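2024-03-11 09:14:02 INFO receiving multi-entity request
2024-03-11 09:14:02 INFO entity count = two
2024-03-11 09:14:03 INFO echoing inputs for audit
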Amino acid sequence: MSNPEQVRVCIVIPSYNEEKSLGDVIDNLKKVFKKSPYLVTILCIDDYSADKTSAIATQHGATAIRHILNTGAGGATSTGLRYAKLKDFDIAATMDADGQHAAKDVLKGVETLIKTDTDLLIGSRLINKEGMSKVKVLGNKGLSFITYLLFGVNSTDSQSGLRIFSRKALDTLRWETSGYEFCSEMLWRAKQLKLVIDEYPIQAIYTDYSKAKGQNNWNAINIVKSLVKRRVVEMFE
Amino acid sequence: MRYLILVLLNAPIIGLALLNIITQYKMKKASKARFRHQIILWGLILVALLCSFPFYNYLSDKPLLDSSELSLFDITETTAIIALIYIINSQRRRIERTEKIVRDLHQEISIKLSRNSDD
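2024-03-11 09:21:47 INFO inference complete, emitting structure
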């Protein structure tokens, strides 16, 4: 990856009913990456939305893949990374479709991954907590702590949707869960595969829309239940 | 005699589970880690079963759990529990394999259908 002009980057945006924000997210990415030396493809995975998510993605110049069933965030991310692997991308990035992540942070992540030879780079919202409500900080810290207890992976923001993957990670990293719990499971799988995991600080942008669309705090209980189940089940494997 | 019945009833189930995992490992259908875990799991069940006689005697002597002597019902119950562990474990593996196939199939179909609509 010595010549950045030849580095092909696939930015995966798992989306479910995101017609209101997706257009701006894609436009911002195009604007930021236009100035970069990388060959970028923006890929929207429409997880069987009821609105015009796929159409909006295509209108704004992104490639759209529409699921034929609703699978959850983990399933949509998995499809995106499978596509990136099939199309031989060097690097893939995932980000939220609700406008929570800044396009410049995605570019910063790609540059950091290339410089550091990391396999999985997590954009942590909790290194710089500015803009996050106390409830969100507490919930995310709690889930990160549970991820550490169950899987022994130390991350300040185990639930972050902004992640950058090396080619090695694209080839090897797989997970079983399809809901939001995949974020923690992915870290566990990466640890099992001995991939190099690192973090970098990102800024979280919370608008009224992203607050309304974001995870319900009570969903943390479902995530924990699912992670405990997965951990126990694999003790018998 | 009752402990002998308990062991005789359960040993074939454990033997079958061990045979399954050894066959899967030898046919390269199970990873080394899974093979090791399964051997440890069923080995522990076997040891617990073989140690049930002195353990029961110990409990009967002590007022710890106020245990009575091993009854025919206890034998049936223990056998049922071990048989269920075996069945649940193998069914869970089968379900997870099927889930993975369905998931992969769904992803491949979604990618291919989207590619076709692009063309």
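2024-03-11 09:21:48 INFO post-check: The interface with chain B takes residues 63-69, 71, 75, 78-79, 82-83, 86, 176, 178, 233, 235-237 of chain A (CB under 8 Å).
2024-03-11 09:21:48 INFO post-check: The mean pLDDT of chain A is 91.
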